[in-house]
Write a structure and sequence with these properties.
Length: 371
């Protein structure tokens, strides 16, 4: 299995910078998801690793072999990088059966007929599509076509599998089912997956590492729960999570004991950081995940219900607090009448404090309400 490394990789078209000085390591057997909004550089990054796009500068290695180096002029073609690429539209041959689609690449690689038959049978079994071997793509559902495309891509035993938004053409239910299948497939094949999406739910549920990008710059590269629980900056905190994190402008004053006095929304609170921190500005932004803004009779914060959105398993409650709307998640089948007065509290030790100027997360900690 390959170890992929990108060293100071950039891609420019004239004055436009698509990817800017990207450094990252993709470990063996990992499931790395390149995540970010449209135009952030994630697909360009995938295509540069795969050899479908030429970087402007930098170096890329796969399994210890340099496949691109701007300084020495090395630039191996995609065909020589031993990778598989799964496109968004699957690109199946309509006039070929499922068996023929999967075997097509192996025939071009001059595999023997017996080896092709055995490998195709293996892929049909792994992807649970054996019964469709003699069908044509037009006779398959979208999910079945996707499985055929994955089987065809995996058949030549590539070192790494690249996927560019492979679930975007599927309906919501099938997307959920295929996420389950992709995660299981990654475990069963011991392959390295590199996957592009703008859907943060896909990133959270599938990835072993999330590479979150904005305007060509790497914002955070960590396991998904780390990205969610300890975001590097405001952009990461806002992009990952649904409902999104609550952001509250606050004035901060660091106290001699290391804690921080906050003034926000007409309230005063004490922020107790989990580890020592040093503020560079009094202008801060408090970041609270909706699950940490709890509704309870013992809460010290008075608010009103703006709206409630019950979904069965949980209810998202929009809370009005000093003319600002905040989100809370209440687990269980509960509903709240509009304009109903409630009491809230801020719980947990994963509350974020951001510097308003740099947008960096300067501390994680817990909140104590004052007077």
């Amino acid at each position: 299995m390959p170890h992929i490394e990108l060293i100071h990789v950039s891609k420019r078209w004239g004055n436009f910078v698509a990817v800017d000085d990207l450094n990252m390591v993709i470990d063996d057997r990992s499931f790395v998801i390149l995540l970010g909004p449209s135009g952030c550089g994630k697909t360009t990054t995938l295509r540069m690793i795969a050899g479908l796009e030429t970087p402007t500068q930098g170096k890329i290695t796969i399994d210890g072999v340099t496949v691109f180096d701007a300084e020495t002029g090395i630039n191996l073609s995609a065909a020589k990088r031993d990778i598989g690429f799964l496109f968004q539209n699957y690109a199946l041959w309509p006039h070929m059966t499922v068996f023929q689609n999967i075997s097509f690449g192996l025939e071009n690689l001059k595999w023997s007929k017996q080896a092709i038959k055995e490998r195709v049978a293996e892929m049909l079994k792994v992807l649970k599509i054996t019964q469709f071997a003699d069908r044509y793509p037009s006779e398959l559902s979208g999910g079945q076509q996707q499985r055929v495309a994955i089987a065809r891509t995996l058949a030549p035993k590539p070192k790494v599998l690249f996927m560019d938004e492979p679930l975007s053409n599927l309906d919501a239910k099938l997307r959920s089912e295929m996420r389950t299948e992709l995660k299981r497939l990654h475990a069963d094949t011991n392959s390295t997956f590199v996957y592009v999406t703008h859907d943060q739910l896909e990133a959270m549920t599938l990835a072993t590492q999330v590479c979150l990008m904005k305007d060509g710059l790497l914002q955070q590269y960590d396991p998904p729960l780390t990205v969610y629980g300890r975001p590097n900056n405001l952009f990461v905190a806002d992009f990952v999570g649904n409902p999104t994190m609550n952001f509250i402008d606050s004035l901060a004053e660091q106290l001699p004991d290391g804690s921080i006095r906050l003034k926000c929304l007409g309230l005063q609170a004490r922020f107790i950081p989990n580890s020592p921190c040093s503020l560079t500005s009094s202008r801060t932004i408090l970041g609270i995940r909706p699950e940490y803004l709890t509704i309870s009779d013992t809460g010290k914060i008075d608010a009103t219900v703006y709206s409630a959105l019950p979904s069965g398993m949980e209810t998202t409650v929009k809370i009005r607090l000093h003319e600002q709307l905040l989100s809370s998640v209440v687990f269980g089948a509960k509903d709240f009448p509009v304009d109903h007065p409630i009491k809230c509290s801020i719980d947990g030790d994963a509350i974020c404090l951001f510097d308003a100027d740099s947008t960096a997360c300067v501390a994680m900690g817990r909140i104590e309400m004052l007077g």
